[in-house]
Amino acid sequence: MFDRILIANRGEIACRVIETAQRLGVSTVAVYSDADAGAKHVAMADQAVHIGAAPPSESYLRGERIIAAALQTGAQAIHPGYGFLSENPGFVEAVVAAGLVFIGPSADAIRKMGLKDAAKDLMAAAGVPVVPGYQGADQDAGVLAQAAEKIGYPVLIKAVAGGGGKGMRRVDRAEDFAGSLASCRAEAKGAFGNDAVLIETYIEAPRHIEVQIFGDGRRAVHLFERDCSLQRRHQKVIEEAPAPGMTDVMRQAMGDAAVRAAETIGYSGAGTVEFIVDARDGLRADRFWFMEMNTRLQVEHPVTECITGVDLVAWQLRVASGEDLPARQEDLQLSGHAFEARLYAEDVAAGFLPATGRLAHLAFPMGVRADSGVRSGDVISPHYDPMIAKLIVHGPTRAIALRQLSRALAQCQVAGTVTNLAFLGALAGHEGFARAEVDTGLIARDLEALTELAEVSAQVVAQAALVAAGLERMTGAGVGFALWAPLRRTILLGFGGAELSVVLMSRGPDLCEVELVDGLVRAERIDGRWRFDGMAGHAAFQEGDMVTVFADYGRAFRIIDPLERAAGGAPEAGTLIAAPMPGLVRDVFATVGQEVKSGDRLAVLEAMKMEHALVAVRDGVVAEVLVAAGDQVDAGAVLIRLEEPEDAA
Ligand code: ADP
Fold first, then answer.
1. Quick check: is 296 catalytic?
2. How far apart are CA 264 and CA 489, in angstroms?
3. Exposure on the CB side of residue 546, measured as CA atoms within 13 A
4. C-beta of 135 in contact with ligand 1 (< 6 A)
5. Which one is the CATH code of 576-648: 3.90.950.10, 3.90.190.20, 3.40.1400.10, 2.40.50.100?
6. Residue 528: what pLDDT?
7. Where is the ATP-grasp domain (predicted)?
């Protein structure tokens, strides 16, 4: 076994590798960019080396710097993780040339599987079924169109160098072929620097089933299959193992094909052979075809670890350090069912736009495997993948594991950024998915229902207002806010695009009536815990002006400062009438729409046993009255907002 390895990656996969290395007593070296100096993977590793600026092209993709870091720290081997340099044969050669071990396959094996067309040819020659189509060297548009005609529409145009779901176009009609080909080529050229394509028959409503293999350069075994059919735009969202409905015959056929694929190229380490499956008549041993092989550890490898009990990273380190395959095929057993959900910082409502931000709070439920590269306080930077974590559950049956997944998602606490939690929760609760009716089109078909946001409940808004007012934090007997806090207080909350005005009315030390636009919520503290209309409050988190109530996968509210709200920028002098000190509003004379002159009395504030008249310091029209007689207000609280006469509607 190695004494020390370097992990040429960041985020959750770097942390994942470091964890296993530590368990095996292997010392670890992290590398990091400017953006990651304080990252979790750096904190976890025994040593860390700075390798450049935040953009991957200036750090995590700089093979020469990474190799130099390994040599400088005395690391014997480099683990590439996934992404970045993990499938770059040139990097593998450079690592080996530097006298280091690459924890993964040979450059030759990576090259053989690197381009989809060559890989398909190789696999077909080895007797592995491949998706019918054209993968010739002649890339003339006319030749390709003819090939599409021969295959029969619909067809799929695929960039031979494609990956990550990019560089693919489905074409339904001959008249659309030329246009789709041009756009696919342009995308492939931009993303992969290679615009060669292949044409395949498009399989309707297919399933994506992949087989985990592991080789030692001579022999290979498979560790059963994963079903990754739940995809959005060809990107995996929830993965599971084993594949629902898998039969022994089909598993044997797919496993054999995958092992043959691996042994054909003398594969060493962990790899995945991806198949597309036509499951219209159930899973049949003659209806699966090789799509591609990923010559690295996959994001979704944990579900395989759950059902086999194998630590794939431990196997990677053992085999790379010269050990034989740790198990024979007959030693490998499949147990139970596992799911993995990919939690991302992304704005689902805005079309799954990657989001950034500081994770003000991050907590995962107990009893769930959460592979994560970030902690509370960490930043999701725009430079890298916005993944927050992978949540992995393992149960004795699929139904139980799915319930565990639902529960785990509901109990995740993320504050500080938008996430796809609610979307994942909706998927985990999807009836077709529960019945294992999965195919790659499921998400697209039901996207609207899956992304529909449940309305926020009055009780959750009431809780957010209580948190905003600081009342939730006050604990212990007798800390009634009536003693010293205002009796009646208006809280303004921004939620989505809306602005909610919430009035808190104290009715005693442990009782508060919360008035919303459309009703009243009774908040009562029993045994130190607030209940809202009799229902227990949720966990909640506040930082700065953001309050997150961990209900419905997290509801975030922004506390609106009336000053800022009234202003919409820097307020013009004299437009805001604010309380000069904390006090009780005795009287309000102003009404909305009223024209006032400089010097007019607008309200009376009682403070420090005196009455203070609040007067207009300029002419204007009353735009808003934010308080009523009887309100307690803090110093600086805006009571009335004026606007120019011509601004008035
Ligand atoms: P990438 O390398 O970009 O991940 P893949 O070849 O693995 O591309 O394909 C990604 C996804 O695209 C598959 O999981 C599947 O959902 C879909 N797909 C690929 N080939 C076909 C096909 N011939 N017919 C229908 N869908 C396909």
1. yes
2. 73
3. 18
4. no
5. 2.40.50.100
6. 85
7. 120-321
Secondary structure element (H or E) that encloses residue 506, with its range: strand 498-506
What are the DSSP calls for 298-362, one per residue?
A: -TTHHHHHHHH---HHHHHHHHHTTPPPS--GGG----SEEEEEEEE-EETTTTSEE--EE-SEE
> Cα of 561 to ligand 1 centre, how many Å?
49
Name the residue with the closest Cα to ligand 1, atom 23: 202
Instruction: Kindly report the length of the chain.
Output: 649
- Tell me which of 291, 293, 298 to substitute to probe ligand 1's pocket, judged by most ligand atoms within 8 Å of the beta carbon: 291
The residues spanned by each domain of the chain are 4-103, 109-131+205-335, 133-201, 337-453, 458-563, 576-648
By the 8 A CB rule, do 233 and 187 touch? no
Cβ of 549 closer than 6 Å to ligand 1, yes or no, is no
Angle between helices 107-114 and 89-97 in degrees, nearest 10: 170
289 lines ligand 1 (CB under 6 A): no
User: Which of 257, 275, 268 minimizes the C-alpha distance to 220?
Assistant: 268
For residue range 421-445, list pLDDT tens digits in order.
999 999 999 999 999 999 999 999 9
Q: Is the CATH number of domain 133-201 3.20.20.100?
A: no
Q: What is the pLDDT of residue 478?
A: 40
Question: How many A from CA of 574 to the centre of ligand 1?
Answer: 63
Q: What does CATH list as the number for 4-103?
A: 3.40.50.20
Query: Do residues 194 and 143 touch, judged by C-beta distance below 8 A?
Result: no
> Which segments of the chain have a pLDDT < 50?
476-484, 570, 648-649
**8 A C-beta contact, residue 205 and residue 198:** no
Atom of ligand 1 nearest to the CA of 204: 25
Identify whether the C-beta of residue 107 lies closer than 8 Å to the C-beta of residue 239. no
Using a 6 Å cutoff on CB, does residue 276 contact ligand 1? yes
C-alpha torsion angle, residues 153, 154, 160, 166 (rounded to 10): 160
Q: Which residue has the tokens 């489905």?
A: 170
CA of 165 from ligand 1 middle (Å) equals: 7
3-class SS of residue 246: coil
Does the CA dihedral 310-314-315-316 come out positive or negative? positive
Query: How far is the centre of ligand 1, averaged over its atoms, from the C-alpha of 234 (Å)?
Result: 6
Residue 228 Cα to ligand 1 midpoint, Å, equals 11
Q: Phi first, then psi: what are they for 519, rounded to 5°?
A: 150, -175
Pick the atom of ligand 1 nearest to 208's CA: 14
What integer pLDDT is reported at residue 477 of this predicted model?
42
Q: Which atom of ligand 1 is nearest to the CA of 289?
A: 23
Report the nearest-CA residue for atom 2 of ligand 1: 163
Q: What angle do CA 356, 358, 360 make, to 5 degrees?
A: 140
Which ligand 1 atom minimizes the distance to the CA of 166? Answer: 3
Query: Among residues 207, 296, 489, 555, which one is catalytic?
Result: 296
Q: Which of 130, 168, 184, 228 to mutate to test the pocket of ligand 1 (most atoms within 8 A of CB)?
A: 168
pLDDT value of position 237: 97
Ligand 1: does its nearest atom lie under 6 Å from the Cβ of 386? Answer: no
From 476, 51, 119, select the one nearest 264 (Cα to Cα). 119
Residue recorded with tokens 């009990």: 309
Q: Is 200 in the pocket of ligand 1 (CB under 6 A)?
A: yes
Which strand (E) or helix (H) includes residue 455?
A: none
Which residue bears the tokens 């040593």? 47
With a 6 A CB cut-off, is 278 part of the ligand 1 pocket? no
The predicted-structure confidence for 158-178, as pLDDT tens digits, reads as follows 999 998 778 999 999 999 999
Distance CA 297, CA 214 (A): 10
